[in-house]
Design a protein that fits this description.
- This protein folds into two domains: 422 residues, Up-down Bundle (Growth Hormone, Chain: A), CATH 1.20.1250; 98 residues, Glutaredoxin.
- Helices cover 69% and strands 3% of the residues.
- It contains 25 helices and four strands.
- Strands 2-1-3-4 form a four-stranded mixed β-sheet, covered by helices on one side.
- Strand 1, helix 19 and strand 2 form a beta-alpha-beta unit.
- The protein is globular and about 80 Å long.
- The protein starts with 21 loop residues before the first helix and ends in an 11-residue tail after the last helix.
Length: 563
């Protein structure tokens, strides 16, 4: 029973400090981590609304790209947070790092809810938003490793995977809470009031609620004592004095960091964020045009069901070993993504799939005038006639083929026998470019409609249970991979440098590989014209882990972690 899992007292190592019972260890770690995931996921859930209110000067597609890029930018700073707070955790202790990161995360999230929009403050608004995202990313980079280590260093070896599985599962209630609050607020105030640009807009409420969560998180973290293993290490003056140099400047430790990154975190970041972000927010809502409430409800349902699966697979790794449970998850994702996303399209918008097969779309453009539309800053201008045509089509979820046109010619789009010209916008001011793009969108929309392309998914033809079944296959893959990762990383690294060494590969994988799934996949789609081509990004990174894990990652189940 969990209630009977009481930690070994540090007094056995010469200390008389009180020891936190295992149920409190799990509750405090999981609740705090859940709240921090809530803070981070609210932004991702509201990316389209953020685009509308903070990137008003951009056209809708560029605004969405900027919002997705900013979502990824928060992840960019996670490894930096891992280095900063990993050093704090390895030198001073796990508890201190906990308190700092939760305070930073909560304050930044509340701050986003209080920011002026572009309509209220002009360019200052996106600047302040970027600053808040940097704080969020840095805080989350220091949070996860501490929670996983804290639980693992309290747990019995034979149940270490099971108990750290609760930390893994905390992402699910954090995401569900974010989705639920957004869904209820959106339905309560109405779409117009929810997406408004004033101080009483509904989108602010999910961010402001973080103030209460912050108070609870701090209270819970203050109840914790330091882990017995670290207290014993500190009593013997054995903690690392320079954890960064020791973790990354010594080859035996650096080798473990690289092994963790290649065999685990490349695949984990790619799979998890494809399943829980790209599939619904970009593919189903943006490309397949399903109703946002339907998409949010679907994601909330599968995410809620994912929580016990993390614990199931983490507990299974206590019995059969860590590496093969995770390898199963990677392999399942690898074989399921392409057929699964094709099935999602058919279940979400069959009229669009039929129209694509019946009347293909072709973009005729000078290849030299077509850009790779990858932008994580929101400052790039994709204003050639080719870029405008492709972004409008990709944003509408329309697959197209590319045909080279003579150099210097203006791009045009062929829809069956109909040809629609684009516009050159490089010399236009932002408002004029936005208007010109809207005109191209209107002309293409009319031609697509005449060819039988639906403007949005027909709710009567959306197969919700088909979507749910496909998404649950993806969820099984993601949870089998993610469930045992925490205890695997804890057991892989020496205690002196554990916080620093395990946090960096984790956040490089989840932050840099996973966080950039939406924006990178969207850029690949616009370049190729194939709405499924964006999947090559997560598939390549997942394949790296599938191929390296069996040969490079040692089986670490049951390893002593006090040395």
């Amino acid at each position: 029973m969990v209630a009977g899992e009481v930690t070994t007292r540090a007094a056995a190592a010469g200390h008389a400090d009180a020891v936190t019972p295992m149920p409190t260890v799990i509750a405090a770690s999981v609740l705090g981590t859940t709240f921090e995931w809530y803070d981070f996921f609210v932004f991702g859930t509201l990316a389209p609304v953020i685009a509308k209110n903070f990137f008003t000067a951009l056209d809708p597609t560029a605004g969405l790209l900027a919002a997705l890029g900013l979502f990824g930018a928060g992840f960019f700073f996670r490894p930096i947070g891992a280095l900063i707070f990993g050093g704090v955790g390895d030198r001073v202790g796990r508890k201190g790092a906990f308190l700092i990161t939760v305070t930073m995360m909560g304050a930044a999230t509340v701050g986003i809810g209080l920011l002026p929009t572009y309509a209220q403050a002009g360019p200052l608004a996106p600047f302040l938003l970027i600053l808040m995202r940097i704080v969020q990313g840095t805080a989350l980079g220091g949070q996860y490793g501490g929670a996983a280590i804290y639980v693992a260093e309290h747990a019995r070896p034979e149940r270490r995977g099971f108990f750290t599985g609760f930390v893994q599962a905390s992402a699910a209630p954090g995401l569900v809470a974010a989705l639920t609050v957004v869904l209820i607020t959106r339905a309560s105030v109405g779409e117009a009031r929810f997406t408004a640009a004033d101080w009483l807009a509904g989108w602010r409420l999910p961010f402001l609620l973080s103030a209460g969560l912050l108070a609870i998180s701090i209270w819970m973290r203050l109840k914790l004592s330091e882990s017995p293993a670290f207290r014993a290490l500190k009593a013997a003056d054995g903690q690392a004095k320079a954890p960064l140099a020791e973790a990354f400047g010594r080859w035996p430790n650096l080798k473990l960091v690289l092994i963790a990154l290649l065999t685990l975190m490349c695949g984990q970041g790619a799979v998890w964020y494809t399943v829980f972000f790209y599939a619904e927010q970009v593919f189903l809502e943006r490309f397949m045009k399903i109703d946002p409430l339907t998409g949010t409800g679907l994601l909330a349902a599968v995410t809620a069901l994912s929580a016990p699966l993390y614990i199931l697979f983490a507990g299974l790794s206590d019995k059969v070993g860590r590496k093969w449970v995770m390898w199963f998850g990677m392999c399942l994702a690898l074989v399921a993504f392409f057929p699964g996303f094709h099935a999602l399209a058919r279940f979400a918008n069959p009229a669009l799939v039929d129209a694509q097969a019946r009347t293909p779309v072709v973009v005729l453009a000078d290849p030299a005038r077509c850009s790779l539309q990858f932008d994580i800053t929101g400052k790039a201008r994709f204003a050639t006639s080719c870029d405008i045509a492709k972004s409008v089509l990709a944003n509408a979820g329309i697959s197209y083929s590319n045909e080279a046109a003579p150099a210097g010619t203006q791009a045009r789009v062929k829809i069956g026998a109909v040809s629609v010209g684009s516009v050159e916008g490089e010399t236009l001011a932002p408002p004029a470019l936005k208007a010109a793009t809207a005109q191209v969108k209107a002309r293409l929309g009319q031609a697509l409609s005449q060819a039988g392309y639906p403007a949005k998914a027909d709710p009567a033809r959306v197969n919700f249970w088909g979507l749910f079944g496909v998404m649950m296959i993806f969820v099984v893959a993601a949870t089998a991979l993610f469930g045992p990762i925490a205890t695997t990383l804890v057991e892989l690294f020496p205690m002196r440098i554990r916080y620093t060494a395990m946090s960096l590969p984790y956040h490089v994988g989840t932050g840099w590989v996973g966080g950039f799934v939406p924006v990178t996949a969207f850029a690949i789609v616009t370049a190729t014209g194939n709405i499924y081509a964006g999947l090559w990004y997560p598939i390549v990174f997942t394949a790296i882990s599938v191929l390296t894990l069996p040969f490079l990652l040692p089986e670490v189940r049951g390893r002593p972690i006090s040395s």
